[in-house]
């Protein structure tokens, strides 16, 4: 745990003139699950958009494996091994499950598509059953699995997830998090954005708590889960 | 339309008649000298209108009754799609397309020049519809000025054969591809950040300004009068056939090539990337698809196909004027793609066949109708949008 895989240093950014992030610093080390908690409007999704180069930082640095990521494009960032599984799943509703997955391997050598698809089906056997079904006809949980599977197709070195539990039944959420743990154990570090703090902190090694554009807390997942302030603010206790 | 289908269809027909009737008396004419559009009232046209329209309305009503009857007998879309899947299975078989090509090619020996003429135009429109299908159907970019690229291809050929004696149509094809592609790229570059309606307006503007440019450069383009193609530059005879048969064969070959290219593209990572952009641009971007680059490529490629169609058209008719980039042509191509089914290759083929072949046949055999061709188009489109918004061969879920 010496050099972080991904490091944000005093990152400022937002949309147009408005500044959403007011100096965010965080690190992700290899092998970790890091979760970023925070209420609506705290700037969680903005952080991920900045990392993906979907929007440009106003100030600050994004350092990935020792080099700057600041002036990239989304496809360039993806080519360097960071993938974002966007909020609200955003699968392609009129493409089959298999085609959806293959889109994820867009930057990969096309001869390896098939082999990767099989790997994803190992993680998500349910998707294998629905291989040729249209993405839009899947249930919410299956769509989320598909979105995660699609993100894994590019063989990422860092998987970023934006609220994978959004709008899913508790049982399904649990299942999704189990799979995330499994993915992490296979060697993929995860940066997880969640409102479902309890679930996220259960699997996370470390966590950050964000309030209106700044990090107010950072600790191990276990400590955060037990901290009074977090319990009060996010777990409703 | 669910509660009382018969009644509402009848009302729809009444509505169409009521809305169009006042316009029937107007006879619009264009004065080429003054450049004015004049409107005259001509009461005789009303009679013509009813003799022409009544059989259509009755025919449409009859078709509707038949469809109701068939539906009552369990003949639904399911059965129709099973016919389609049969065709799909046949496609997979080896030599299927070869046989089809030979069959279609044999028409050039059998059919007369009149039929061949129509079929050549159908083929050219097929290339256009397939090309437009790349942007509208696959990538989801609405392009309204597609005829501009068509005209551009034609003018590349027409101007070059004026400048270089002995320049033939097939030499113009690569040049037109190049010019068309780069023009598509240039028009696309500034406006692909726009979406939907805005992009449509910009492309429409391109076609219209291209037409005005051509009209106002008489020294190069012949202005309003247009350019005639020297006979050496036209299509030569092949296989001991007549000129028209030869043109037909070349157009047929071009259609097959375009279909083959598109079919390969459709199932390639590139085609999937286009579909992904159409389905969800944000997700496509998150998956590492260079969205702007892909859109530009789709745009340029469709312009290339239009330019090729333009060369073929000019080589076939031996004449080109600015009206080739008229808005009506853009709309006609768009209608073909929508009627056939957005994003579907067989759909684009069927759509262009129906919308070109049938009106031509009608014109020849029921001349009274041809006056109201556009009106008929409009009605067909409205009914289509109500009954089958995804187009004839479009996927069922693609609404």
Keywords:
heterodimer, A: 237 residues, alpha/beta, Rossmann fold, 10 helices, B: 399 residues, ABC transporter involved in vitamin B12 uptake, BtuC, 2 domains, two-stranded antiparallel sheet, 4 strands, 4% strand
Q: What can be said about this structure in brief?
A:
Chain A has 237 residues and is an alpha/beta fold.
Task: Summarize the topology.
The complex is a heterodimer of chains A (237) and B (399).
Chain A: E1 6-15, E2 18-28, E3 33-38, H1 44-51, E4 57-64, E5 67-68, H2 74-79, E6 82-85, H3 97-104, H4 113-123, H5 125-129, H6 140-152, E7 158-162, H7 170-185, E8 190-194, H8 197-203, E9 206-211, E10 214-220, H9 221-226, H10 228-234
Parallel strand pairs in A: 3-8, 3-9, 6-7, 7-8
Antiparallel strand pairs in A: 1-2, 1-4, 4-5, 9-10
Chain B: H1 5-24, E1 26-30, E2 37-41, H2 44-72, H3 77-92, H4 96-110, H5 113-139, H6 146-163, H7 169-191, H8 196-215, H9 218-221, E3 227-228, H10 243-266, H11 269-279, H12 281-286, H13 291-317, E4 319-320, H14 327-340, H15 345-365, H16 367-370, H17 373-387
Antiparallel strand pairs in B: 1-2, 3-4
Distance between the termini of chain B: 18 Å
Global mean pLDDT of chain A: 82
Number of strands of chain B: 4
Question: Level of helix content of chain A?
Answer: 25-40%
* Fraction of residues in β-strands of chain B: under 5%
Report the order of strands and helices of chain A.
Answer: EEEHEEHEHHHHEHEHEEHH
Q: Give me the secondary-structure category of chain A.
A: alpha/beta
Put simply, the count of helices of chain A is: 10
- Label the CATH architecture of chain A: 3-Layer(aba) Sandwich
Structural summary, described in words:
The complex is a heterodimer of chains A (237) and B (399). Chain A has a six-stranded mixed sheet, with helices on both faces. In chain A, strands 2-1-4-5 form a four-stranded antiparallel sheet, with helices on one face. Chain A has one domain (6-234): P-loop containing nucleotide triphosphate hydrolases (Rossmann fold, 3-Layer(aba) Sandwich), CATH 3.40.50.300. In chain A, strand 9 (206-211) and strand 10 form a beta hairpin. In chain A, helix 3 (97-104) runs parallel beside helix 6 (140-152). By secondary structure, chain A is of the alpha/beta class. The model of chain A has no long low-confidence stretch (mean pLDDT 82). The radius of gyration of chain A is 17 Å and the shape is globular. The longest helix of chain A is centred in the C-terminal third of the chain and has 16 residues, at 170-185. Chain A contains ten helices and ten strands. Chain B is mostly helical and 399 residues long. Chain B folds into two domains: 1-75; 95-387, ABC transporter involved in vitamin B12 uptake, BtuC (Orthogonal Bundle), CATH 1.10.3470. Helices cover 74% and strands 4% of the residues of chain B. Chain B contains 17 helices and four strands. Chain B has helices at 5-24, 44-72, 77-92, 96-110, 113-139, 146-163, 169-191, 196-215, 218-221, 243-266, 269-279, 281-286, 291-317, 327-340, 345-365, 367-370, 373-387; strands at residues 26-30, 37-41, 227-228, 319-320. Chain B has a two-stranded antiparallel ribbon. A two-stranded antiparallel sheet of chain B has the order 3-4. The model of chain B has no long low-confidence stretch (mean pLDDT 79). Classes of the chains: A alpha/beta (237), B mainly alpha (399). The interface between A and B is medium-sized, with 31 and 20 residues.
């Amino acid at each position: 745990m010496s050099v972080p895989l991904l490091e944000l240093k005093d990152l400022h950014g937002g949309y147009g003139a408005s500044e959403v992030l007011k100096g965010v610093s965080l690190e992700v080390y290899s092998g970790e699950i890091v979760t970023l908690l925070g209420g609506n409007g705290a700037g969680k999704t903005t952080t991920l958009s900045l990392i993906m180069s979907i929007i440009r930082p106003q100030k600050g640095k994004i350092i990935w494996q020792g080099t700057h990521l600041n002036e990239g494009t989304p496809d360039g960032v993806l080519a360097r091994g960071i993938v974002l599984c966007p909020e609200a799943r955003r699968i392609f509703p009129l493409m089959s499950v298999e085609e959806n997955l293959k889109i994820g391997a867009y930057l990969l050598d096309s001869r390896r598509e098939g082999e990767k698809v099989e790997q994803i089906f190992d993680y998500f056997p349910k998707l294998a059953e629905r291989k040729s079904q249209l993405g839009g006809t899947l249930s919410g949980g299956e769509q989320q699995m598909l979105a995660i599977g699609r993100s894994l197709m590019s063989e990422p070195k860092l998987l970023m997830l934006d609220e994978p539990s959004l709008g899913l039944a508790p049982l399904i959420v649990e299942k999704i998090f189990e799979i995330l743990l499994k993915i992490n154990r296979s060697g993929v570090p995860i940066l997880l954005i969640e409102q479902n703090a309890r679930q996220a902190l259960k699997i996370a090694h470390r966590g950050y708590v964000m309030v209106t554009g700044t990090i107010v807390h950072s600790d191990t997942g276990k400590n955060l889960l037990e901290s009074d302030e977090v319990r009060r603010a996010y777990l409703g206790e | 339309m669910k509660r009382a289908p018969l009644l509402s269809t009848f009302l729809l027909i009444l509505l169409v008649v009521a809305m169009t009737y006042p316009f029937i008396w107007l006879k619009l004419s264009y004065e080429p000298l003054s450049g004015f559009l004049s409107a005259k009232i001509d009461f005789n046209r009303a009679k013509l209108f009813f003799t022409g329209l009544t059989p259509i309305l009755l025919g449409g009503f009859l078709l509707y009754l038949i469809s109701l009857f068939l539906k009552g007998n369990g003949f639904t879309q399911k059965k129709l799609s099973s016919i389609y899947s049969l065709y799909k299975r046949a496609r997979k078989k080896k030599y299927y397309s070869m046989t089809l090509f030979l069959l279609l090619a044999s028409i050039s020996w059998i059919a007369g020049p009149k039929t061949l003429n129509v079929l050549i135009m159908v083929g050219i429109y097929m290339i256009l519809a397939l090309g437009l299908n790349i942007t509208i159907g696959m990538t989801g970019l609405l392009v309204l000025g597609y005829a501009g690229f068509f005209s551009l291809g034609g003018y590349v050929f027409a101007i070059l054969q004026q400048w270089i004696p002995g320049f033939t149509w097939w030499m113009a094809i690569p040049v037109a591809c190049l010019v068309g592609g780069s023009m598509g790229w240039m028009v696309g570059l500034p406006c692909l950040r726009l979406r939907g309606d805005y992009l449509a307006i910009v492309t429409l503007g391109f076609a219209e300004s291209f037409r005005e440019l051509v009209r106002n450069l008489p020294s190069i383009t012949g202005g309003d009068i247009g350019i005639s193609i020297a006979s050496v530059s036209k299509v030569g005879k092949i296989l001991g056939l007549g000129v028209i048969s030869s043109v037909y064969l070349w157009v047929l070959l071009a259609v097959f090539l375009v279909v083959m290219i598109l079919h390969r593209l459709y199932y390639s990572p590139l085609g999937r990337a286009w579909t992904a952009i159409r389905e969800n641009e944000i997700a496509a971007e998150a998956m590492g698809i260079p969205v702007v680059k892909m859109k530009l490529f789709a745009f340029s490629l469709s312009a290339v196909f239009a330019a090729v169609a333009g060369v073929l058209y000019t080589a076939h008719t031996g004449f080109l004027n600015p009206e080739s980039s008229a808005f009506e042509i853009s709309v006609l191509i768009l209608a073909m793609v929508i009627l056939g089914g957005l994003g579907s290759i067989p759909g684009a083929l069927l759509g262009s066949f129906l919308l070109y072949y049938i009106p031509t046949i009608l014109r020849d055999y029921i001349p009274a109708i041809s006056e109201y061709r556009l009106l008929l188009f409009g009605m067909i489109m409205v009914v289509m949008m109500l009954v089958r918004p995804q187009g004839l061969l479009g996927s069922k879920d693609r609404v």
